[in-house]
Design brief:
The protein is built from seven helices and seven strands; from the N terminus they run E-H-E-H-E-H-E-H-H-E-H-E-H-E. By secondary structure, it is of the alpha/beta class. It has one domain: Rossmann fold (3-Layer(aba) Sandwich). The structure holds NADP nicotinamide-adenine-dinucleotide phosphate (NAP). The site of NADP nicotinamide-adenine-dinucleotide phosphate (NAP) has 27 residues, from helix 1 and helix 4. NADP nicotinamide-adenine-dinucleotide phosphate binds next to helix 1 and helix 4.
Amino acid sequence: MQHLILGAGSAIAQALIKKGLEQGDFIVAVSRQADNRKELSDSNSLRWLQCDYTESSIDQICVVLRESGMAFDRITIFNGILHNEGMSPEKRLENASIDHLNAVMRINAFVPLLWVKALKPLLKGVRKRCIVTALSARVGSIGDNERGGWYAYRASKAALNMLMKTASLEYHREAKLVQFLLFHPGTTDTPLSKPFQKNINPEKLFTPDFVASQLMSIQDGLSPELPITFLDWQGKQVEW
Ligand SMILES: NC(=O)c1ccc[n+]([C@@H]2O[C@H](COP(=O)([O-])OP(=O)(O)OC[C@H]3O[C@@H](n4cnc5c(N)ncnc54)[C@H](OP(=O)(O)O)[C@@H]3O)[C@@H](O)[C@H]2O)c1
């Protein structure tokens, strides 16, 4: 199996890369971070590409991928932030700011769309099924929003879902073998969730390893009929 992993520095992505290599996959990993494959494996089955996620950098990576003639069975997009040094999720409207909204929207929703746009020429020619997965979140569900808060993150994941749904319909017309999955991993012990783990029941805080296994088996078992589906770590449908 050939797997393209975008945002490969993610803790969940790292676990997925390890598992993929163990089962004999060939993996292309793309990240802002420098090549750290030594920590993962010395295997020749991993190619590491660096990208700063500007539109031109994403386009350049896609040119390299096209020239390599690779045919991916899986493409998984991990890019997503909830907080950084200067920014934490808004508890109240008073905390909302244009800079925060712009930054989170760009990384969580627009960067994944730029990937799906730039990959289209490569994917239009595929002769085998390819599953494109984007890491979403249940808090991006409009129907499930009963607590409020986290304006930018919620809105960015809802926007991600809409952008992927719209792209999946276009792909369905032009590249029938490409199918989309929006995946909610559950609360997973990674740098993204670290500051928000206090009130989580330890049984509900998953390891990246567990989530990577769940994702792999959900991708393997995905029925090919639907252009897109929004599933959680148990394979259960999440309300849009
Ligand atoms: N952990 C959870 O509880 C949880 C719950 C629901 C959904 N998710 C989603 O799961 C995905 C992976 O998150 P994680 O938990 O593994 O967190 P993580 O280890 O903090 O990973 C962060 C991800 O975001 C990318 N990223 C960070 N800053 C960026 C920037 N300035 N521009 C573009 N990309 C940037 C990183 O890519 P690089 O490789 O380039 O660093 C990496 O893919 C995210 O989309 C997140 O929203 C996580």
